[in-house]
Amino acid sequence: MKLLDALKWRYAAKKMNGQVVPQQKIDYILEAARLAPSSSGLQPYKIFVITNKELQEKIKTVGFEQSQIVDASHVLVFAAWDGYSLEKISEVFARTTQERGIPSTAMDEYKERLWGMYKDLGQEWHANHAAKQAYISFGLAIAAAAEQEVDATPMEGFIPSEVDKLLSLNELGLKSVLVLPLGYRDASNDWLVNLKKVRTPQNEFITEIK
Asked: Which Pfam families match (predicted)?
C-alpha cells in the first residue's frame, strides 16, 4: 500500500479483535521506528514490546481502561531518557565512530560542544527534548503500521509514573512517553471505523512563502 493511501486508510482504532499480528509485520514497524531521525543521532529513547497479557491488563488499569491495550496483539511503550549526560552522549558517539570506521576521537569536538549546550538546561528540559525525539519514531511506527495494514492506536492517555513502575523504567534512566497498541480493528464494534477522516484543508494547513 502506498504511503498516502495507507494514511487515508488508518485511523485510531477504538476496538481491536485480538488477532495476532505476524512477527514479520511487527519487525517491519519496529525497524521503521529504529531508523527514525533524532537530534544529533542520539536516539534518546527505547521501545518496549509487550505481548504478556497479564502485563497488558496492568497497563490497561493505569491507561484509563482503554480496551485496545488488552485486545491488541502487541503493545509498544516508547520510553525516553530521563536526562542527557556526557556519558550517554559519549556512548552513542563511540558506537558511531566504530561503525563508520573512523578514529574514536573524530567526534570529540562536536560531542563537547553538544554537551556544553545541554548540560546547564536542566533535567526537565532534557527529558522533554528526549521525549520529542521519541515522538518522531512514534510517528514513523504509525505510518509503517498503516503501510502494513496493521491498526495502531496512538495513546498519551495513561499514567506515566505507573507505567514506569510496571516496567522498572526508573532503574534504567527512562520515562514512559507514549503507548502504541498494534492489532486489527474490530469493525463490527468500533464506532469510529466508518466515520469520515477529517483534517484541516490544505489551503488552511499549508502556508507557502515565496
From this structure: Nitroreductase
- Could you tell me the three cell numbers for 30? 519496529
Instruction: Judge contact between 70 and 57, C-beta under 8 A.
Output: yes
Please report where in the chains the cell 495507507 appears, as a residue: 6
pTM assigned to the model = 0.97
Tell me if 19 sits within 8 A of 184, measured CB to CB.
yes
Task: Report phi then psi at 19, rounded to 5.
Answer: -65, 140
Nine-digit cell string for 174:
527512562
C-alpha distances in Å from residue 68, one per residue of 43, 62, 109, 183, 195: 27, 13, 47, 8, 19
Residue 1: the pLDDT is 74
Q: 65 and 56 in contact (C-beta within 8 Å)?
A: no
What's the order of all strands across the beta sheet hosting 74-81?
45-50, 74-81, 174-183, 151-152
Residue 46's φ and ψ, nearest 5 degrees, are -135, 160
Residues with Cβ < 8 Å from 166, sequence gap 6 or more? 55, 58, 59, 62
Q: Is the backbone of residue 204 left (phi > 0), alpha (psi -120 to 50) or beta?
A: alpha
**In Å, what is the CA distance from 194 to each residue of 27, 155, 159, 190, 201?**
29, 21, 30, 8, 20
